[in-house]
Amino acid sequence: MNAGVGDEPAAEAFGPGGILTLAGQLRDDFDRTFSRPVVPPPSGLVDLLALQVGTERLDIRVDELCRVVTGPVITRLPSPVAAVRGVALVEDTLVTVYDLGVLLGLPATAGGHLLTFAGEPAVGVTVDAVIAHRRIGPRVAAHAPMVTTEDLIERVRSLVHR
């Protein structure tokens, strides 16, 4: 009789072939998760990342982000603009990196995380920490202390076009 992995006694799971069967099942389960279609949040709900910027906690919409990089390698560049931290290479794209704290008139961040945004030119901001993922309704979203990509781009443009 050929029992499935879940039916095997614990001792047999670690015998010859037991681990291979378990590994195969785990691999198949992992692969299956990528074959399922992405399920958007229920209508009207907004996915947010909660960010720590100095002593402030801010939210940003997940759909406005391109990447979140932990421990980014940032090459500093000399700049008269205090908000410019430098550049980073993110998946073969050179990204200009700004400090979100400085852009918002707060103290500079430690730069533990880099958030990048889709679009040209490639732009990213550093934050102290990514705290949590939240899914909220539109009424709550209307009152959340939120950073928008549009606001950030306007702040960057104002620095660049001085």
UniProtKB/TrEMBL annotation:
Matching InterPro entries: CheW-like_dom_sf, CheW-lke_dom
Task: Enumerate the Gene3D superfamilies for this protein.
Answer: CheA-289, Domain 4, SH3 Domains
Q: Which residues form the CheW-like domain?
A: 48-138
Q: Name one Pfam family in it.
A: CheW
Write the protein's name: Chemotaxis protein CheW
Instruction: Tell me what organism the protein belongs to.
Output: Spongisporangium articulatum
